[in-house]
Amino acid sequence: MENKCQLIQFGVPLSLLTQVVESPRLAVVPLTPPSHRGLLYHGRAIHPVFDVAVLYGDADPGPARTALLLDAGGTAIAVIADRILHAAETLAGMVTRPSWDALFAT
Questions:
Q1: 91 pLDDT more than 70
Q2: Residue 39: inside a domain, yes or no?
Q3: Which of 41, 36, 66 is nearest to 52 (CA)?
């Protein structure tokens, strides 16, 4: 049986991106859903960190490599990224572009 791994790519508009944090140290929060990876203390603020792939039903990929700090709907949050791709590297038509403002608005 052949094991196929489907690559899921999510597009984040650069206008929402405030900072990229490499190797973030996350504080796990008990009793939260699997998509809530924890809290990130950065820039004198605490940011909730979400794994959008898990939110969309993918399996937990393991430790976070990169966190993208976003201003989504007036809410400062972070999302996990395995890799950051240049626009030319993305697979045409294979990028999911969630409504970030609606997804994380308070």
A1: no
A2: yes
A3: 36
